[in-house]
Amino acid sequence: MNRRSFLHTTGLALGASLLSSPTPAQAGQFTGKIRKSLKWVMAANAAKGLPLVEALRKLRACGFEGVEPHVSQVKDAAEWVEASKGSGLLIDGTVGGRPGALESGIDLTKKLGGDSMLVVVPYDIKSPLVPQWNTARDQLKAAAPYAEKQKIKLLIENVWATFLISPFDMARFIDEVGSPWVQVHFDIGNMMRWGVAEHWAAVLGKRSQKLDVKEYDLKKAMDEGMQKAFNVPLGEGSINWPAVRAELAKINFTGWAAAEVRGGDWTYLADVAKRMDKVLDIAP
Is the dihedral angle over the CA atoms 57, 59, 60, 61 positive or is it negative? Predict the structure, then answer.
């Protein structure tokens, strides 16, 4: 075989090899940076009748690495700790803190091995706003040293209480508390009633320590009512997920993202985990 024929034959073989070889899958933008959790209430019905350790194993099989129970749901902390160890599913944090009564939740979160408690600031629309702002701020200031001692972050969530309804409000509130142990649990879906998810992410910046992940559809809100707008699968609503990811990338976000959608069976929960992979770009 002459040189020209050899090169021609070799080139054909190389080309065929490249065409037949599978393209290596590229890791997602947040693979290894964002870990998936979910609110325990989402799995509570599916888990009925099962030992807790078996339910947590099933959540791991669905694709989750962590779970966040409400403080009121944990009747036996030792049982949760043993189930977490036996299943390999971490309890990354808890839900249900309220300013003025935080120490017991901080202690429980510590026992469970979590590192944060989601805190909701109550708001009475029939009472003046400024005194409520000041009271909540001062209560969190007072709780911050104990949270620091226990190494548990108090993360304020943006909820539908008509309080802290702009990113500037939330940022100012956190800054007035003035502690690195009081930051934000950023709910990407909740704020769509009043704003734009990526704008919130940009303003809050590194104050956002953990994420809640849900969808919101503005057309459904207009046609069927504001609460109905949550009833849409992740990735199929109005949230601009690529824009949210771009803002999270700017702050090099790492940490936990918890699904907070309606509950369902194990097949449904596995689908939620896969949808989280897509909207957060954390796969494969």
Answer: positive
Q: Are the beta carbons of 238 and 216 closer than 8 angstroms? A: yes
- Give the residue-averaged pLDDT of 30-51: 97
Nearest to 244 by CA among 278, 210, 196: 196
The token pair at 98 is 């309220």
Q: How far is residue 139's CA from residue 253's CA, in Å, rounded to a whole number?
A: 28
Binning pLDDT at 50, 70 and 90, where does residue 26 land?
confident
Q: Which CATH architecture has domain 26-279?
A: Alpha-Beta Barrel (3.20)
Which tens digit of pLDDT belongs to each residue from 177-236?
Answer: 999 999 999 999 998 988 999 999 999 999 999 999 999 999 999 999 999 999 999 999
User: Which pLDDT belongs to residue 123?
Assistant: 94
Q: Between the CA of residue 221 and those of 125, 199, 227, 260, 261, what are the distances in Å?
A: 23, 20, 7, 18, 16
Q: Where are the domains of the chain?
A: 26-279
DSSP, res 284: -
Rounded to an integer, what distance in angstroms lies between the CA atom of residue 258 and that of residue 256?
6
Report H helices in 21-128: 52-62, 77-87, 103-112
